[in-house]
Amino acid sequence: MTNILDGVRVLDFSRVFAGPAATQVLGDMGADIIKIEPPTGDEARYYGVSKDKLAEMGGVSPSFVALNRNKRSVALDLRNAAGKEIAQKLVEKADIVVHNFRPGVMERLGFGYETLSALNPRLIYSEFSAYGTTGPMAGMGANDLALQAHSGLISITGEPGRPPVRCGTAIVDLHGSLAIVAGILGALLYREKTGEGQRVESSLMLSSAHLMSYFYTEYWVDGTVREPMGTANHLSVPNQAFPAKDGEVVIIASTDEMWQRFAGAMGPEQLDIPEFSQVFSRRTNRVALIEAVSAITRQMSCAEIVEKLSAVKVVVAKVNSVGEAADSAQLQAVGGKIMLQVQDRQIPSVVSPFQYSAVDINQGTPPPGLGEHTNDILQELGLDAEQIDDLQNSGAFGGLRAAAE
Amino acid sequence: MTNILDGVRVLDFSRVFAGPAATQVLGDMGADIIKIEPPTGDEARYYGVSKDKLAEMGGVSPSFVALNRNKRSVALDLRNAAGKEIAQKLVEKADIVVHNFRPGVMERLGFGYETLSALNPRLIYSEFSAYGTTGPMAGMGANDLALQAHSGLISITGEPGRPPVRCGTAIVDLHGSLAIVAGILGALLYREKTGEGQRVESSLMLSSAHLMSYFYTEYWVDGTVREPMGTANHLSVPNQAFPAKDGEVVIIASTDEMWQRFAGAMGPEQLDIPEFSQVFSRRTNRVALIEAVSAITRQMSCAEIVEKLSAVKVVVAKVNSVGEAADSAQLQAVGGKIMLQVQDRQIPSVVSPFQYSAVDINQGTPPPGLGEHTNDILQELGLDAEQIDDLQNSGAFGGLRAAAE
After folding, report:
1. Which of A103, A202, A272, B391 is most buried as measured by Cβ atoms within 10 A of its Cβ?
2. Could you tell me which chain A residue has the CA closest to the CA of B235?
3. How many CB atoms lie within 10 A of CB B295?
């Protein structure tokens, strides 16, 4: 059973989140991912952890572990002539280049699309920027939070009447990572047909706009500007969290049939009344409905509510903590966790979000040490030990290779 | 210039969000999307709008418009023998089937993977479920909110010390849509190599776990369970929204270099102090730092802050409303909007989140009316008017075709 991208080589110049998350998915699909790191390493190696924890983890942060399995690492100083020359040789043998520098940076380094496609016309060049490569904001830096703000996502997240909040995870980055993956896979299909490489662009801008698309359409249709609604939304009622004795559960009974079953199971006297019986009337009477439902759920445990509503096929789910979610038996059952051997410990990792019947899940190799595969990869390029020493003396690795040995 | 999926036919049995969003992307890439709707139509046609607005929109909701361009619609009653027979004929000529029914439903209808792949071994069968097709929760229904709850995403979204909230948009569905797209494109590549179709699974479960992956890894490493932090996060400081005279801006100065530039531009006396100078010390002194920064930003307008910080290359973005975001000049500049002719009005729509240099953006055809292309598609199958009438009399269309004519 061969994997889908066996034999496909990706040169990954990207850092931190969206790019690395994308190449991890490609690696899971069998591609050979060569992570080109600056001599100081991908910043995500040190991200969001205390010095103590970093030491305990052997120098890699949990987010780095989460997004960098199935890769090899080469440390190269791209501002050094010898370092640049190696990178160019790697480009000649690559199928795909991925980067997420600001527009213009790769061009200044000598790795712009025009230059690289002249070296290798079959090359697929995946470019991920903040706001795109044209337009008034093209030059601005940004990250996930900036695009949560710019896209309006923050403005619809939070409690009504209180300051809006971010979506707790790096949703624009991670959604962008799948946009990169889909864009690249499409370009590979195009290359199968035509033999030609091309440039594929995505950005935090396009990723966030895609996430907000139905809100924009609604605004464009009639000027509606949505605001935060807590755990509720504007689409239907009930469709939100309700309090239980020991936590919260979300309950969704959007259609009239679901509502009927819900009301029957939870309290026909209080709930099975004409004011709540129809999609439109439930929206009109939402405040009264939410009060009536809350009065009932408050008397029950989360488990009782989930059991009762599951039995009548009403959508219900406990509001889990991160730990409860990570330990969910269901995640394990669907093959959602794989184990990585990170130095001397086994650390679980979440699989890519699609699974094939004809191809096994790629059992992950752990995140690479910085520059860990420099020698291997240079040897694959046909360089011998002496030539590699010369490169080191020329500063191609920024002094890093010795440390990795 | 041919589009990447020209000649690829998708039978789309999916409804509401993730599936339709996925097939819209495939349609944008040139695939022929045949939306198989029940005679009552995809529920999303009527979703989240008042009766008045629905009438004004010509019977389609904004969310339906946002996710259903570049498709044709056939209304079929799959529980009717004649309706089922047509669907089977369509399967024989399809490359891809997409559905998001609960596990078992397609099997009971006679459209399970085993049955369809026997009819058409090259078929790619994309299955999107709630919690996956195995495990203790496989049979449970769910939607975006349920998986925001189950995955722990809600538990990390909101203000500290207050009830958590949902992420304002249907992030699990939309992220899932790109998982479906990537999964299918991978399967098409595999078919190019091997000639074989296969089943590709994704789910709200896998989509949400992917979004939460780095939080799970952190928990698995040392038991850390994150909680809501408003607009801030645990990765770095400052990395959150700050108040301005006329709104809010997010400011991200994660690295020490960025912080240096930020402090220099905004107020060296108050900010360029040893307590704030390093990544780790900014995390330790976050409360004092946020107060000091807020005291400065409160005196300035959003535009002033954005201008001043952009000039020193610190990441900054205004917290836009949905309307400001939709009307953003940058979205327009990067080709993020295309115009759809929906009945007698032009309605903008957001593009798919990746763009090719060798292939144009597919100028969208508007969302189809329910069953609008039934006749066309049956004629393509070789049926003549009399045969189509017979099918109608047999109830294949659930009485719908006449209405669409």
Report:
1. A202
2. A48
3. 13
Lowest mean pLDDT among A357-371, B154-168, B314-328: A357-371
CA distance A378 to A12: 16
Distance CA A117, CA A353 (A): 31
The reply to whether residue B355 touches residue A29, judged by beta carbons under 8 angstroms, is no
The two three-digit tokens of residue A13, written as one number: 């110049």
Task: Name every residue whose Cβ is closer than 8 Å to that of residue B72 and which is 6 or more positions away in sequence.
Answer: B32, B33, B34, B35, B368, B372, B373, B376, B377
Tens digit of pLDDT for each residue in B27-51? 999 999 999 999 999 988 987 777 7
B53 vs A183, A222, A249: nearest CB = A222
Is the CATH code 3.40.50.720 the one for domain B9-211+332-404?
no
Nearest to B319 among A149, A319, A350 (CB): A149
- Residue A404, pLDDT score: 39
The ipTM (two decimal places) reads 0.96
Class of domain A9-211+331-404: alpha beta
From 3.30.1540.10, 3.20.20.70, 3.30.1370.10, 3.90.25.10, which CATH number describes the A239-320 domain?
Answer: 3.30.1540.10
Q: Give the predicted TM-score (pTM) of the model.
A: 0.96
Using a CB–CB cutoff of 8 Å, tell me whether B300 touches chain A. Answer: no
Q: Name every chain A residue with its beta carbon within 8 A of the beta carbon of B164.
A: 231, 241, 248, 319
* Res. A344 pLDDT band, cuts 50 70 90: confident
